[in-house]
Input
Amino acid sequence: MPNVLELKKYPDKILRVKCKPVKKVDDDIRAVLNDMAFTMRAHNGVGLAATQVGLDKQLIVVDVGGGLISMVNPEIIEKKGEDSVEEGCLSLPEITVKISRAEEIQVKALDETGRDIIIDAKGLLAIAIQHEIDHINGILIIDRVNFIKKHFFKNKLLKNKKTAKST
Ligand code: NI
Output
């Protein structure tokens, strides 16, 4: 049975870690990917990265409605166009941020069996994959906006955190 893992939230330091590549896709990695997918679904997310469950590994899962995609060591090898979408993040639950990203991408990764895969993605899938790859590089949605907005979002997140703790 897969487990729902504990979600790490801003400003947890693990969210700033640039993750190490996975050397071997073994049963342990498959179990983690399973738990990540289970956790993502439990929180109604469309994507989840390893840092969000406290792991320093290049692992992401996404499902924007077309089925689960698990990726090990994902890397964007091609980008095309531009798209701006309001994005949320399970690790920064109080905010949404409008972010400009590539409209279409080609991603290279390993699947859960360790085989090489190439994924061509556009629309919401492309956005979700770019968001999750940002996560395994220690990048959050608040880093994708200008300084003034970033300051505003940071204050909002930290203020909400204090309120939550005191109640
Ligand atoms: Ni996120």
User: Anything to note?
Assistant: The chain has three helices and seven strands.
